[in-house]
Amino acid sequence: MRTYKKIMIMGMSVIVAQAVIATSQAEAQEGLFNSLDKNQDGLISQREAAGNTKILENFTRVDINEDGFLSMDELTSSPFLTD
């Protein structure tokens, strides 16, 4: 029974740690988005993306709907911007 409790505690610790990491990553992405969105229209243009080399280099790949702007959803769901 002790082994089961230890395994459960370790498993729950891993889940909590992953949640904390995911939350901090989302907050970092939101902060980056807000810092680039100079006109605060909720979108990042190519001109605004010039403030971040990685986003600018991958702009057309990240722009899923090809409207010439990046939304928060496009930015956070893009596999091209992961480290």
Automatic annotation (TrEMBL):
Residues 1-28 form the signal peptide. InterPro entries: EF-hand-dom_pair, EF_Hand_1_Ca_BS, EF_hand_dom. It comes from the Bacteria. The keyword Zinc does not apply. Residues 32-48, 59-75 form the EF-hand domain. SUPFAM superfamilies: EF-hand. Keywords: Signal. The keyword Signal applies. This is Calcium-binding protein.
